[in-house]
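Collaboration report, partner site 2.

Our partner group contributed sequences for two proteins of shared interest, and the home lab folded both. The records are reproduced in the order in which they were received, starting with the first partner submission.
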Amino acid sequence: MRVPIEVVNARREQLAQLLQQNRYLSVHELCAQLKISEATARRDLAALEKAKRITRTHGGALVDFNLRFPSFQQRQHEAVEAKRQIAAQAISHVSPGMTVYLDAGTTVFAVARLLLERKIRPLTVITASLPVADLLADGEGVKVILSGGEYLRRQSVLMGKTTHKVLGEFSYDLAVMGAEGANGEGVWNSQADVVKAQQSVLRHARQILVCMDSSKLGKTAPIFLSKWSGKLTLVSELSQEQVQAILR
């Protein structure tokens, strides 16, 4: 039986809204959430891509967020001094022999660069960030493990179900993460798939540093990452007193 066009259009709009909320979803996840077949999902994705509303990837889709969001290279030049100060604070928590998770993003990349300079060895570093992995791979005494997943070129990061699974298989002495917002309730980020990867790490980390500059404090983002806890510390270029005043 032929499905009425208004039903098809409504379903495609729902699919587009799901992607807008989550930024990235696999075909499997879209099928599960909309209760549709893979063939139907692929037809709908093809139609949305033709309308230039999404970008299809191998096994999933992104909203045009991936094209609008500043690339890793562009973000490298933002808040440079704040990132340097944050990195200096973050590496004070790193000791030889640790297994450390380093998130994607330019603030955590600044942490990785300082780790390389300070030669804290030996270290095992697990990451989904290609720039972090590439930077540390030649560091003597640093073992680098890169998670699997789908490569998003502009963000220079691996994402998807494989990433979540791999990151959940390790235990971490320390996890260094980025985020897009923090308030009295907790920490927030902008992409559901990134949050899923981070939460895979959170469950297995003894200590978590959330690194963000002061422009993100007192703000929220679309996806809630975590409540504050005893093992989660916010690292900013501001003093702890200034941070607490903003988050209060």
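Second partner submission, folded after the first:
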Amino acid sequence: MGKDHKIRSLSKLMSYILRHRPDEFGLVLDEEGFIPLKELHKAITEEEGWSYVRMADIKQAVYVSDRERFQMDEKRIRASYGHSSPVKIQYEPSVPPKILYHGTRRKAYPGILRNGLSPMVRQYVHLTTSRELAIRIGCRRDPAPVLLTINAGRANEEGITFYLANELIYLVEALPVEYFTGPPLPQEKKEKKVEKKQEEEPEIPEYMLFARGLHPHKELKGKSKKGPSWKNEHRKYRRQKNR
């Protein structure tokens, strides 16, 4: 397949994603119909047979498009058709299914358990109807994301507003911790400080002291000092005894 043909095929795929089914790829248009370029690139390279695509290829597909299908700035891209007017996309409140899913980074998970889900740099938190899609979206930011199960039915009944972005993705402005569950945090390994006990020097028998040339009745302090040899000590003892 030639380079030009690959670019044309890529342009068609981008048009399908941006104009028709962004939800199939775990993407959500912002109020102006844009999608971050990085997210579009990751979604494309996840598809079988498209892993070769680079950011430069996406930009080339935009520039050589004969119908001016796309509009792109430094960080975002959108399909031109249907988004030429300045009217912003408004997502309508919608009753969600009882259960939704969200994939998040392991690094962010402890903070989410403390403070709940928030959109961070986005306008909304993205939730999906599919476990597999939630994991796929999460893998774009972490190769082993944490899967959260959202009790959307209960949250909606208790006043949390959900918005339907497309068939597979719901949006929420924020979600408190009581409305989702996830795996337990891994237990931190606590380093046990082992106190070094000073070993008490064993008591040395008298016969060993004699063997080492030490007087058995002298107090040992610090390191042992060499005394007279065992033979000399024993001879002195015999002379005193024979007197």
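Feedback sent to the partner group on the second submission included the following. Residues 41 and 132 are 19 Å apart (CA to CA). Confidence is low (pLDDT under 50) at residues 189-194, 220-227.
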